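User: Modeling request: complex.
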Amino acid sequence: MLGSIAVSTPSTTAKPVRVLVVEGQALFGKALCQVLASDTEIDVVGDADSVANAPLRRLRPDLIVLDLDGHHMEFAEAMRTCREAAPQAKVCVLSTHVQPEVMQRCLSAGADGYVVKDILPVELIRAVKSVAAGHNYVDPRVAGGVLKRRSSGFGRTSQNELSVRETEIIRLIARGMSNKEISAKLHLSEKTVKNHISRIFAKLNITARTQAAVHAIKTGLA
Amino acid sequence: MDSYVVEAQSLFVPYLSDVLAGADMRVVRVATNLDVDDIRATRPDALFVDTDFLDIDPADAVSAMREALPAAFICAYTEGEGARADRLKFAGANCVLSKRFGPTEVTDTIRRAKRGAGPAQAPDA
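Assistant: Request completed. Predicted assembly structure:
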């Protein structure tokens, strides 16, 4: 064919990674899809605002990018749902939290990767590919925090460490929200919120919300 | 309108900038947290603030922005609904955008608020 130029394309034998994005913020979810779809080795097969609404069985993704902050169920429950509906899928958590204990809870619940939301697009793509290839990926800043804690002798998971949900609730307490507001925000009953708060008080050995708020601020949770 | 964005999720900013451009808001500066001095120095026509990732109370942040730039158009982006969204409106936001909104709802809400077609559009409770 006259004028045609033979273009050599990279010989990629591997199929694109099929990624499903679960993100509670509608715009952020679209942004994620746009970033991921820009890479030819990633195929964004769908997006959903929650695990409950994600067509996991139908889409059979290789990897789920799961927003930690926006879902309305316990993280461990969200992970169970993912594992049951898409047992083949790796899960890469996307979070605003840089606290090592939050990351550890996510990994303990079965997540394969943990990425903080201010990650650069190119690094997010690298993280997704790495997790899809069977490696674990943890944001270097969070991993650095874990190493620091270990070197300080606090590496072991303590029974007194707050769960992901408890961490979320103590942050909201620190923002001055009432139980009713927290229950509305997290789509939990007020009774459940009270139970979480009781456990927070017991774990931190405190008796008042103001003490919880102070703890959250001092430890960087809020 | 030259617009200043306060958004901690930097991964989100390029897409957000495109969406805001659809509402005639041209992003000229982005910060990951509230810096009132920087806002004063930049003197944007509009401010977009993601209130869920600030170091201070969201309503206080909006008040500080309003005080810094009394004539600016302020958009508060929030997961909060009902009373929490109302607080942002009372603090001085011209429009309150829910994180449940898709791009079209965001631009439509901003456009309505810019036309001054009533009070800020707080998300329904």
